[in-house]
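re: ur question from earlier - yeah i can do the single chain one, its not a big deal. heres the input i used so u can compare w yours
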Amino acid sequence: MTEIVFLVEEDPDGGYTARALGESIFTQADDIETLREMVRDAVHCHFPDAQNRPKVIRLHIVRDEVIAS
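and the output i got, formated as tokens:
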């Protein structure tokens, strides 16, 4: 595996959540900068062997926006 993708969403209670697609990895943080660190740490914990660890972590940030018509 060369890449792992995380779906990042704003948490209704505040902060952000990140869920890996295709792996059982989930983490959360109060801000995006901290979330990046938490995701990197979670990937390192899930893939302790550096040779099997994805080389790229992609964050797909989803944000709902409502506009008046």
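The chain has a mean pLDDT of 95. not sure if urs matches, ping me
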